[in-house]
C-alpha cells in the first residue's frame, strides 16, 4: 500500500549553495525545493560577491532518499552550485547529547577536602550506618538509570546496545529538560533475561529509579516483574507504562469531544506487544466496553493456538464476540482504533467503515498505520505520534513527571494508582473548556504538564487508594502496575 511520506524535522538538511546574483535566483531555489515535495524552513545569505550569492537553504524532507532527490533537483538548475549538504540530525548528535556537570565548586583545597578526601569519609560512614541516607546525601535522590538491551529500538527492531545509545541519550535529555531528573544511559551487551536482571540489580544502589527502554516483548514483562520484586526503587518500562498513560489521557479527552463513554465503546488495538498489551490492560481496568487485539497472528481470539502467555491472556479477556478476521474487518463499526504496530496497514476507506464519530490513534513512527490526512476525512478525532501533526501522543507527556513524583515521594515502586493519576492529570491540563478535535492532549512543551503529573503521582504514592479487584492474568504477565507504554 503506497503512501506519500510527510516531510519531518527528523530529516532536515541544510544545503550550502552558490547561485548567480540575479533577482530571480533565490526564488528559483525555493520553488525547486517545493516542487520536490520538501518544506523550506530557513534561508540565510552567508556571503556574496559581485556575481554570486552563497546561501544556506534549510528544508524538511521525508527521508534520506527524498533528501537526495531535493539536492539533485537543485543541482540540475542553471547557475546553481551545490557545495555542501549537512544532515542536521547527525550534526546534533556529534559527540553525544548529554554530559556530566558538577553541582559543587572545587576552587580551592578546602572545598576539595569537603567534596572528596578526607571529608567525604564522614558521609560514607553515615550511609554505612544508615543506608537510607543515600537518598539524602548522594545522587540517588534524583537519578534514574535508562536501561536497554537494544532489542526493540523505536520501530526499528533489534539493533543492539550501541545503536540504541542515541535513543537512551535522548531519553536522558528529556528527563532533565522536562522533569529536572538526572538520568543516565545504561546499554547492556546482552539480551539474556537472567543477565539483565542480575546487572540491573547490581547497579541499582546508585539510582532512585530504573527506566527500562526498548526491550522486546515478551521478555520485557518478565524482566520488569523480577526487578520489581527484587528492588526497593521504582521500575518503570516506558514502552508500556508511558504509552498506556498517554493513550488513556488522550482517549479520555477524545471521548469527551465525541460525547461517548469508555464503557460503551469498542476499541481495536493493532499491536499486542509491550505497548499494546499495557494499553489494553489499562483500558480493561477502566471498564472499556470491548477490545479486539490484533497482531501478527491476526485477531487474538479464544481457540487460537500457540500463543505466548501474554497473548493467551488477551485472547481470553478481550474480543467478546470472538472475532477472527482481518484488521479492516475488525475496525468495521468500531468506535476507536489504536495503532502501536506498523505503517500503512489501513486506508481512508477502512476508516470510513468505523462507527460514527470515530477516534483514530495511529501511533506507529515515523509512518502511522493510516495516513492521518486520509483518516481525518472520516474520523472525528485523529492523533499520531508525530510532532508535525495535531494531537501528538508522546511519552514525554508522562515519564518525566511520573519519575519526578516518584523520586520526590521516595517511592519504592510504581503502582497502577500512579498510572491512573498521571493519565487524569495529563487529560485535565488541557481543560474541558479547551478540548476540541485537534486538541485532546497538551503540547509536550506545556510547562504545566510535568508538575501536574508529578503532583498527582506524589499524591498517589503518599495516599494510595484501593482499586477495584480484577483478574491480573497469569503470574508471568505483570499487572498494569508492573506493565503500563513513539516515540520519542
From TrEMBL:
Task: Write down the SMART domains for this protein, in alphabetical order.
Answer: malic, Malic_M
Nucleotide-binding as a keyword of this entry, yes or no, is: no
- Please indicate if the UniProt record lists NAD as a keyword: no
Record region (Disordered): 462-488
Q: Which SUPFAM superfamilies match?
A: Aminoacid dehydrogenase-like, N-terminal domain, NAD(P)-binding Rossmann-fold domains
| Matches recorded under Pfam families | malic, Malic_M
Which key words tag this protein in UniProt? Oxidoreductase
Indicate the segments forming the Malic enzyme NAD-binding domain, all copies.
240-462
Q: For the Malic enzyme N-terminal domain, which residue ranges apply?
A: 95-228
Coiled-coil residue spans: none
Return the protein name: NAD-dependent malic enzyme
In the record, what lineage is assigned to the organism producing the protein? Bacteria, Bacillati, Actinomycetota, Actinomycetes, Micromonosporales
Amino acid at each position: 500500500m503506497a503512501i506519500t511520506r510527510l516531510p519531518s524535522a527528523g530529516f532536515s538538511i541544510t544545503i550550502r549553495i552558490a547561485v548567480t546574483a540575479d533577482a530571480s535566483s533565490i526564488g528559483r531555489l525555493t520553488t525547486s525545493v517545493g516542487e520536490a515535495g520538501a518544506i523550506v524552513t530557513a534561508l540565510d545569505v552567508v556571503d556574496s560577491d559581485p556575481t554570486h550569492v552563497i546561501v544556506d537553504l534549510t528544508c524538511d524532507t521525508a527521508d534520506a532518499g527524498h533528501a537526495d532527490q531535493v539536492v539533485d533537483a537543485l543541482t540540475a538548475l542553471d547557475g546553481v552550485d551545490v557545495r555542501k549538504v549537512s544532515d542536521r540530525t547527525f550534526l546534533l548528535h556529534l559527540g553525544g547529547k548529554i554530559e556530566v556537570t558538577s553541582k559543587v565548586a572545587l576552587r580551592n583545597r578546602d572545598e576539595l577536602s569537603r567534596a572528596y578526601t578526607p571529608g567525604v569519609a564522614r558521609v560514607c560512614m553515615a550511609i554505612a550506618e544508615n543506608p537510607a541516607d543515600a537518598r539524602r546525601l548522594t545522587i540517588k535522590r534524583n537519578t534514574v538509570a535508562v536501561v536497554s538491551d537494544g532489542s526493540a529500538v523505536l520501530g526499528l527492531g533489534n539493533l543492539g546496545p550501541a545503536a540504541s545509545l542515541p535513543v537512551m541519550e535522548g531519553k536522558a535529555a528529556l528527563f532533565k529538560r522536562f522533569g529536572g531528573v538526572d538520568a543516565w544511559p545504561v546499554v547492556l551487551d546482552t539480551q539474556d533475561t537472567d543477565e539483565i536482571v542480575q546487572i540491573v540489580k547490581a547497579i541499582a544502589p546508585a539510582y532512585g529509579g530504573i527506566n527500562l527502554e526498548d526491550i522486546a516483548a515478551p521478555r520485557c514483562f518478565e524482566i520488569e516483574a523480577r526487578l520489581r520484586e527484587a528492588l526497593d526503587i521504582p521500575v518503570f518500562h516506558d514502552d508500556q507504562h508511558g504509552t498506556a498513560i498517554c493513550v488513556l489521557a488522550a482517549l479520555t479527552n477524545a471521548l469527551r469531544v465525541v460525547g461517548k463513554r469508555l464503557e460503551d465503546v469498542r476499541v481495536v488495538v493493532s499491536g499486542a506487544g509491550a505497548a499494546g498489551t499495557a494499553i489494553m490492560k489499562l483500558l480493561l481496568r477502566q471498564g472499556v466496553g470491548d477490545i479486539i487485539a490484533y497482531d501478527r497472528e491476526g485477531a487474538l481470539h479464544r481457540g487460537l493456538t500457540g500463543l505466548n502467555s501474554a497473548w493467551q491472556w488477551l485472547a481470553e479477556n478481550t474480543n467478546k464476540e470472538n472475532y477472527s478476521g482481518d484488521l479492516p474487518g475488525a475496525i468495521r463499526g468500531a468506535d476507536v482504533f489504536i495503532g502501536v504496530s506498523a505503517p500503512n496497514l489501513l486506508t481512508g476507506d477502512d476508516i470510513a467503515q468505523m462507527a460514527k464519530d470515530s477516534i483514530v490513534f495511529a501511533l506507529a513512527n515515523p509512518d502511522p498505520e493510516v495516513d492521518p490526512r486520509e483518516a481525518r476525512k472520516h474520523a472525528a478525532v485523529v492523533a499520531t505520534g508525530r510532532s508535525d501533526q495535531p494531537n501528538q501522543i508522546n511519552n514525554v507527556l508522562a515519564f518525566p513527571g511520573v519519575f519526578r513524583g516518584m523520586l520526590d515521594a521516595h517511592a519504592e515502586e510504581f503502582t497502577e494508582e500512579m498510572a491512573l493519576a498521571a493519565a487524569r492529570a495529563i487529560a485535565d491540563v488541557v481543560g474541558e473548556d479547551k478540548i476540541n478535535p485537534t486538541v485532546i492532549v497538551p503540547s509536550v512543551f506545556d510547562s504545566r504538564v510535568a508538575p501536574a503529573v508529578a503532583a498527582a503521582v506524589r499524591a498517589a504514592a503518599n495516599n494510595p487508594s484501593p482499586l477495584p479487584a480484577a483478574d491480573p492474568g497469569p503470574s508471568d504477565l505483570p499487572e498494569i502496575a508492573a506493565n503500563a507504554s513513539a516515540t520519542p
